[in-house]
Amino acid sequence: MRLPISIQKHSFGASFFGRAPFLALVFSRGMLTPQALVSLLLLFSASLAFAADAPLSPAPAKATDIKPAPAVEVPAKKLEYIPPTPTEADVAYGTHSKQVLHFWKAESDKPTPLIFFIHGGGWMGGNRTSGLSSILPSALKNGISVVSVEYRFIPEATADKVEPPVKGPMMDAARALQFVRSKAKEWNIDKTRIGASGGSAGACTSLWLAFHDDLADAKNPDPIARESTRLLCAAVSGPQTSLDPNQMREWTPNSVYGAHAFGIKGDAATKQSTFDAFVAAREKILPWIAEYSPYALVSSDDPAVGLYFNNLPAIGQPAKDPTHSANFGLKLKEQCDAHKVSCELVYPGLEGVQHATTFDFLLAHLKR
């Protein structure tokens, strides 16, 4: 049966019942026979049952009803510090491939002070840009030139048969300092205003240079070896101020650092830890400790030093980070005070701080 075109255009479902008057009119005018009307009603009943089971389509949302999706916070990626291009890059100060340095020249019509930077990494890692971001931009802006040195690590010094191994990185730093002084005229440096800086092992080496007697050899035919290794000042972060295992264990009972500096290893067979082996070997290596431990070298003619830590001292208590404990700083300050050496110790919460950062300390002393 074909329905009149006017009825075919009407949709099924609930809209049919809303048009009951219309159907009555159609039937009354003879457009539908009674049999056709019954068939139509049955068809619409089946359609209604199907529609009840089908999911309802939501009404189109108005523009005002649409809410933007909540913003997703993407954590910012920590960018690695990329220093400006060095004025002189990869300058060799020795024959080993690691004995190189970068030099950044501050613009000045007069000889500039210099920050001599030694990176950290336990004498086992790191590179010349490690830790520079807090110093280099401010230094150049304030008319201070910067050198950052590379040096042999403990394994490389060991391979070179250097004894003790820590002598490798420390003497490399001393040689680099002498080399830089030999370049004073060419690089427009005031060789009387050089301050050292660095973190962790680089800080230890910086303090070693600050407290060690001058290594200049006036009679050496090598002009670089005749240059001084003395500093005007040093400002360092998280230094190990002693390489004496007994001192370290007394100051911070859970100390674990330093044995590798002297080529000492533990014994897996006897379950002896590396640090216990360090303690056991102490008497034998006392001359080395006296030579390479900054604490043992302090004397009244030493330059001013700044010691910066991110934790509070607690002598005799285990530390969260024993290798960089402020106990190192507190004990070195006591030693400096006893020898009347200017020493500024800075750690969180300390009142009366004169220079809040290592650069503040260096700026104050180098630009006097």
Account of the protein in words:
There is one protein chain. This protein has an eight-stranded mixed β-sheet with strand order 1-2-4-3-5-6-7-8, sandwiched between helices. It has two domains: 1-77, no CATH class; 88-366, 3-Layer(aba) Sandwich (Rossmann fold), CATH 3.40.50.1820. It is α/β, with parallel strands linked by helices and 368 residues long. It is globular. Helix 7 packs across helix 9. It has helices spanning 5-8, 14-17, 20-28, 34-53, 136-141, 154-159, 167-182, 184-187, 201-211, 245-251, 274-280, 282-292, 294-297, 326-338, 358-366; strands at residues 88-92, 100-104, 112-118, 145-149, 189-199, 233-237, 304-308, 343-346. Helix content is 36%, strand content 13%.
Essential attributes:
368 residues; alpha/beta; Rossmann fold; 8-stranded mixed sheet; 36% helix; globular; disordered N terminus
Strand and helix map with partners:
Elements: H1 5-8, H2 14-17, H3 20-28, H4 34-53, E1 88-92, E2 100-104, E3 112-118, H5 136-141, E4 145-149, H6 154-159, H7 167-182, H8 184-187, E5 189-199, H9 201-211, E6 233-237, H10 245-251, H11 274-280, H12 282-292, H13 294-297, E7 304-308, H14 326-338, E8 343-346, H15 358-366
Parallel strand pairs: 3-4, 3-5, 5-6, 6-7, 7-8
Antiparallel strand pairs: 1-2, 2-4
